[in-house]
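#struct-help
A.M.: can someone run this one for me? Single chain, 101 residues.
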Amino acid sequence: AINIQGRVGGNLAEILDTIGHTIRERVRIKGEIRVLTAQQMISGYILTGLPVVLGLVLYLINKTYIGRMFQDPCGWIMLGTAAMMIFIGFMIIRKIVNIEV
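D.P.: on it. Structure tokens below:
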């Protein structure tokens, strides 16, 4: 901006004031967005951890009910698929919540 002002002319103080105002405004907006998206990030973490916690609770309550998932090859496939889908869902939530300014 200073190089262009030197070639073209104009009020340097006004140009620098405008640039400073723009930078301050971007920082302020970034802070507001961070505050507004914090709740969605926490929701994403909870939604990601909920199936794992529920599976552990079910395992502690009735080991034979969940134990079959670990004994059968089809159970391992279902667990792997579920883990992959949970991970993909978490990444999608992060992508939606991550807003660039």
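A.M.: thanks! The longest helix spans residues 12-61.
D.P.: also worth noting: The CA atoms of residues 37 and 43 lie 10 Å apart.
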